[in-house]
Known about the structure:
Layout: E1 3-9, H1 15-24, H2 26-33, E2 35-37, E3 43-47, E4 50-54, H3 56-63, H4 67-79, E5 84-88, H5 91-95, H6 98-107, E6 112-119, H7 122-136, H8 143-148, H9 163-174, E7 179-183, H10 194-200, H11 222-234, H12 242-250, H13 263-283, H14 313-329, H15 334-340, H16 346-356, H17 367-380, H18 385-390, H19 402-410, H20 423-436, H21 440-447
Helix pairs in contact: 6-9, 9-13, 14-16, 14-17, 17-21
Amino acid sequence: MKKVILHIGTGKTGSSTIQNTLYSLRRVLKKRYGVDYALCGLSEVNHYGEIIHAHYQFVDWLKKRRLEKLEIARSYIQNSTCKTIVFSCESFYHDLRDEEIALLHNLFSDFQLCIVCYVRRQDLYVESAYKQQVKVGAFTMPFSDFADDHSNVNYLFEAHANYYRLLSLWADYFGVDSVRVIPFERRYMKNGDLVEDFFSIFGAVEALSCGNASLSNVGFPSQLVETIRYYNYLGIVPDDRRQYFIAFLKAQAQYRDFPLANDGIRRGILKNYAEANSKLFEKFGIDQIWELPEFVLSENDESMDDVEPSVSERELLAKMLYEEWVHQHNAVTTKAFLKKLRGSGLDLLWLLKTIVGRVPEIDKLTRCEYRKLICKLLFSGLFSPTYYYSNNLDLADSEVNPFEHYVKFGWKEGRAPNPNAAVREVEAISTVCEGEGRHPLQTFLRHY
Length: 448
């Protein structure tokens, strides 16, 4: 009897890494181990520049009741030269309803089925799912609001993080013994390794020596996620250019990572899921339940949830960086871009026009450094365009670009770049940088 391994998820448990390793080793698995990572119903998805190979197409056939396509899949299994056939897609778990699981059960009734599902502790899952939503959609909701649902008992009846509710459906059709539930923690995995654990299910761990199991769809650091969320709020990036702009953002800085959930949020989430988790672990024979570790959010690791987006220099700098990317990729014309900003007010529009016209021609400061600098200014507050312009009255009657003036002349003249910078500190920095033959903003790029 043919054996079908159905890796159904869940999301944010390294599924893409498993899928891409299966795909890259498919010939070795087939030839040496009799394992077929099914090409039938397999989709090749471009996910922010990374190609992922998963069975989204097969799930789509189930959802749309494409019986002729499903019969092709069944024939594929029957005619395969391998004894074990593997399908993998998180959408099996996330998108299929009772009726579609029943249809899948009928389709695979003649095969030995093993359903594999990794599950992540809910507070960690919620953080990771939030980051994914910000990255792939126009999500502007602060994390604290997103997490509120998962502390609400009424949400348990629809939440994907209620693993007991959804996996019980699979157990009802295929039997508890056919459903293998594995907590997404190293202590539950073979040798503490996700891919090795999955490959041990069909006895082909040695195949991993034939290739590299590199991480796929790696989560973004929190500071980058909050930056993307701010761009989502501004609404200036077209949907069809999002993934390219996000790739650009990712390359501009070393972003900080920090927990989005504080201790109170974590405890609220795990308390809400505690009963369902106890039932899950008991039903599927797992000997321990998740415990909340001691954790307190440090003062230096706060997210930007409390920031209320407004017409400010943060917005101005964000638009400067986007305009730099627009110039680089010729995605839209400067005129069209500025037209979109008229709702921000004439003063902001005028200031923006003076800043984004061109990159300052400055010795030792390249265009690439200029872009990285703007990105870092979003977080550092090193330079405030509005402060610099309004506090240097000799510039008030000119249309000088305040940022360009500071970069060219202001730092040499001891002008403060922001309200918190003392003139003597600026002079000290300038003296050191002149002695080293570097521009002060190059020093900033190197150290922050």
